[in-house]
Write a structure and sequence with these properties.
heterotrimer, A mainly alpha, B mainly alpha, C alpha+beta, A: Ribonucleotide Reductase, subunit A, two-stranded antiparallel sheet, 4 strands, globular, C: alpha+beta, Phenol Hydroxylase P2 Protein, 4-stranded antiparallel β-sheet, 3-stranded antiparallel β-sheet, 2 helices, MOase_MmoB_DmpM (chain C)
Chain lengths: ~525, ~325, ~90
């Protein structure tokens, strides 16, 4: 009975070890390869799963405790924000378009991450990474839901997000983020971890969340700021998981290094291309800017990423080659993207506008080497045309890159006056790419990328009209039919901000709130 | 600019998202469970086939033999979205923490009769491996099932099972030591008592049909194990012999089972009510896995119940059958 | 030399944590923003439980940091007593 006295208290590491890997056993009634069927085909060699180092050692009881506290705080703020019509406190109604972009482009990805981490977690025979992945799976459904819940109130008052799930699966530009995550979840579990756990969460997530969240804060959107910060507290856990995964795989076998390097190269580029939407949001869509895309890239990728890849150099991992091209594009990316959306605003679920004089001055200051020379004249011309009643909405569908699915709008590295085109032949068909990197990704796995559901091809093949549409009738308006298929309301969800219902309502509501009418 | 808007009433353009309005039949305010669940999973225009399962889409109705016209016919009676789930579990973990503290600080573990402590260590600690299997299996149902209404509760269930495995580990550490965990694992791997159950758990780990896996794990195995171990053995038999502190340490499991079985029942009921074909398939799975689970649990029950194990296990099976009949699947 | 950093939400709970970090990492640079505090250090940053406990006068579990953490960089090593972020030279 003196056992109590003799018992030694376990430290965090030992305690966590008995709480996770101690639960596992080597099966004997079923074969390992039947219980874990997805673990061999990628060619990654793992010799000892026990070498896995757990980053955060959270047991479920502590997890529930801390997460519940976060949720209590978060929903209290969302409720307060909604009850006080907090949406009328944002800088101006243009800001709300970033929320539309977020809920239709990003939130559905959080959901895919939830399912993807459930899959990866179940697939790994090592108990350490399995538990970490499953915990992340649980976090990701949190993120998907808190975003929908926080944005739900915006949907009640503003257009463009009323059918965002439907839009995510169909609208042309949303195939960019969707195909990115579809690509990751259809890859093997190791590649999924390098793609999402490492490249996206560790290398790129700061570029998505920190600008978006501080953008929300700067623009008076407390609800969004709060879910962003609250999600970030989980991200810190996810980032360390991503880094541990990479180190673990690399330490297990030197033959893993070239495979992992190829994945890092691929996913840094894939992720960067998706961030085009963020670049445009930062430089054009936030009425009050936090920092430019270029500055964010320099702080969060070039400085941070530099330190990271220096740390990984011991394994023979090098900075992805695409970083060179990204550096050349950073003066142009957001401008080329915004120009494209201004062109195709008829078919988008948010509004566009031309920057005013002050905003042009800000852009010129942040982009001294490119803005005045290449983009200001373009905007000045478009503004002038719009003022004369010649606002031009492009109705000709653009050619898409087979890999990233962005229209072929990007210019040659080092020559911003020339569009960059690449092509490849595969089994008798020709495929088009926006860059050498997207072409390389295709050529490494053509069987995968030929499957891509390219919105423009699909429209031309007649697959994007509502059921029962007859395109052969006289006066058939293909754009109107596509918008019906998207469930976008023409004249409410799309086109210029200036003529929008959002702008009118916001002005009227804020007027009611600030004046005695 | 800070504006006081409390007196201003503005009329919303709509009350919820269109997909929710279509499902609930009108544009009216929707619950957080609804907005966080309905249509959350992507439905159309997937870009690539999984390289790990090229015969299926990313999310594919055909991974199971169960057919549903609408996979959002499933509804979690607890209406758990993440926030509601986390809050519910935090409250339970608060109670569990207080119970562990109470037992620990008052030295109640030392007051347990030796035979009770022995029984508990032999019976409960190996069960942490069963819960670990429950974690893996529910992760699989979540990953490969179809539709958020069906898959979402499974990630909660998966992590609950991990939590239970960790509470059982703490019971082992409190009543024994790390050595008790090792001994329990040896028993789990080698003793005849546990081999039927270990085989059951390993056999479920290779099931590919997510609904069958749901049945084998959440309906059949847990549907017999929890009533037998936590309700019959711990709360009744051992408590009568001075084992009340053990019941305090396992209160989480008792409460958890009472709560989660309502969701399990609702899921079985919805699947079976969909069609006679579903009912036949689900009924077949339930009967088959129930028989295997009952046989596997019998030697485990004997650890605490000795000769009464047959009789009490049969009672638990009777109750289980009644429960399934109520859910619309007489077996 | 490489920079490691940690960013925390600005609030009453993190105030003593930040003070403790500054005490334990004399060379750390604190960058205060309205909603967030970012702390940079060269190669290594340590957060010690004892220092925080001295400042708040109650037991503190380093895992409580989870609630207010925004982002971080570097390799992580956490025990009951300290949390270390570091880059390997």
């Amino acid at each position: 009975m003196d056992m109590q006295a003799a018992k030694k208290k376990l430290g965090l590491k030992e305690r966590y070890a008995v709480m996770t890997r101690g639960l596992d056993w080597t099966p004997s009634y079923q074969k390992m390869e039947d219980i874990y069927p997805y673990i061999a085909y990628e060619g990654i060699k793992i010799h000892d799963w026990d070498k896995w180092e757990d980053p955060f050692r959270l047991t479920m009881d502590a997890y529930w405790k801390y997460q519940a506290e976060k949720e209590r705080k978060l929903y209290a703020i969302i409720d307060a924000f909604n009850q006080n019509n907090g949406h009328l406190n944002v800088t101006d109604a243009r800001y709300i378009n970033t929320v539309k972009l977020f809920v239709s482009g990003i939130s559905p990805l959080e959901y895919v991450a939830h399912r993807g981490f459930a899959h990866a977690g179940r697939a790994f025979p090592g108990p350490g990474p399995r538990v970490a992945c499953l915990m992340q799976s649980l976090d990701e459904i949190r993120h998907a839901q808190t975003q929908v819940h926080a944005i739900s109130n915006y949907n009640k008052y503003y257009n463009g997000m009323h059918d965002f799930h439907h839009a995510h699966d169909r609208v042309w530009f949303l195939s960019v983020p969707k195909s990115f995550f579809d690509d990751a979840i259809t890859a093997g579990p190791f590649e999924f971890m390098v793609a999402i756990g490492f490249s996206f969460e560790y290398v790129l997530t700061n570029l998505l969340f920190v600008p978006f969240v501080s953008g929300a804060a700067y623009n008076g959107d407390m609800g969004t700021m709060t879910f962003g910060f609250s999600a970030q507290s989980d991200e810190a856990r996810h980032m360390t998981l991503g880094l541990e995964v990479i180190k673990f795989i690399l330490e297990q076998d030197p033959a893993n290094v070239p495979i992992v390097q190829r994945w890092i190269d691929k996913w840094t580029w894939r992720g960067y291309r998706v961030l085009t939407l963020v670049a445009m949001m930062m430089d054009y869509m936030l009425p009050k800017r936090t920092m430019s895309w270029k500055e964010a890239w320099e702080v969060y990728f070039e400085e941070n990423g530099g330190a990271l890849f220096k740390d990984l150099a011991r394994y023979g991992i090098t900075m992805p080659k695409c970083a060179e091209q990204i550096a050349l594009e950073k003066d142009h990316l957001s401008h080329q993207a915004w120009s494209t959306f201004y062109n195709y605003a008829m078919a988008a679920n948010f509004h566009t506008w031309m920057p005013d004089e002050d905003e042009m001055a800000w852009l010129a200051g942040k982009y001294p080497d490119s803005f005045d020379k290449h983009y200001r004249p373009r905007y000045a011309y478009w503004r002038e045309q719009a003022a004369k009643g010649n606002r031009f909405y492009n109705k000709t569908l653009p050619m898409l890159c087979q890999t990233c699915q962005i229209p072929m709008i990007f210019t040659e590295p080092g020559d911003p006056t020339k569009i960059c085109y690449r092509e490849a032949d595969y089994k008798g068909d020709k495929y088009h790419f926006c860059s050498d990197h997207c072409k390389k990704i295709f050529e490494d796995e053509p069987e995968k990328y030929v499957q891509a559901w390219l919105p423009v091809h699909q429209i031309y093949q007649g697959n994007c009209f509502p059921e029962g549409t007859d395109p052969s009738v006289e006066g058939f308006d293909p754009l109107a039919a596509v918008l019906r298929y998207y469930k976008l309301e023409h004249g409410r969800d799309n086109m210029d901000f200036d003529a929008s219902e959002d702008k009118r309502n916001f002005a009227e509501w804020r007027g009611q709130a600030t004046r005695n009418i | 600019m800070q504006i006081d808007l409390r007196t201003v009433t503005i009329k919303p353009l709509r009350h919820t998202f269109d997909n929710i309005a279509r499902r609930i039949g009108a544009d009216k305010p929707a619950s957080r469970y609804q907005e966080g669940t309905l249509d959350m999973q992507q439905e159309a225009n997937y870009h690539y086939r999984p390289t790990w399962d090229p015969d299926h889409l990313i999310y594919d109705r055909d991974r199971t033999a169960i057919r549903m016209a609408d996979w959002y016919g499933f509804k979690d009676p607890r209406q758990f979205y993440y926030g509601a789930y986390a809050l519910a579990r935090a409250k339970q973990q608060d109670t569990a923490e207080a119970n562990f503290d109470f037992v620990e600080n008052r030295g109640l573990a030392a007051t347990l009769p030796d035979d009770i402590r022995d029984t508990v260590l032999k019976l409960l600690v190996p069960l942490r491996h069963v819960a670990w299997g429950g974690n893996m299996n529910n992760a699989a149902v979540c990953a490969y099932g179809y539709g958020t209404a069906f898959t979402q509760p499974c990630i909660y269930q998966a992590m609950d099972q991990l939590g239970i495995a960790q509470y059982l580990t703490r019971v082992g550490l409190l009543l024994g030591d790390v050595e008790a965990l090792d001994a329990a694992k040896r028993a789990w791997m080698e003793d005849d008592t546990w081999q039927g159950l270990r085989r059951y758990v390993e056999d479920t780990m290779v099931l590919r049909d997510p609904v069958e896996l749901f049945v084998a794990q959440n309906v059949a195995l847990d549907g017999l194990l929890y009533p037998l171990v936590y309700e019959t053995i711990i709360d009744d038999v051992l408590s009568a012999k001075g084992g009340t502190p053990v019941a305090m340490l396992t209160q989480f499991m008792t409460d958890w089972y009472a709560e989660t079985r309502r969701w399990v029942d609702a899921t079985v009921k919805t699947a079976a009510a969909e069609s006679d074909a579903n009912k036949a398939v689900v009924g077949g799975w339930i009967a088959q896995w129930r028989d295997r689970a009952a046989a596997a649990l019998l030697p485990v029950g004997r650890i605490a119940l000795g000769a009464r194990a047959d009789e009490l296990t049969a009672e638990v099976v009777q109750q289980f059958n009644a429960r399934m009949a109520k859910a619309g699947v007489p077996v | 030399m490489s920079t490691v950093f940690i960013a925390l939400q600005t609030n009453e709970e993190t105030r003593p944590v930040i003070e403790a970090i500054v005490q334990d990492n004399p060379d750390a640079v604190v960058n205060e923003q309205p909603a967030m505090v970012k702390i940079d250090a060269q190669d290594r940053l340590v957060i010690r439980r004892e220092t925080i406990e001295e400042l708040i006068g109650r037991p503190f579990d380093l895992q409580e940091l989870q609630i207010n953490l925004i982002t971080m960089t570097g390799n992580l090593d956490q025990t009951d007593d300290e949390m270390v972020l570091y880059w390997r030279a």
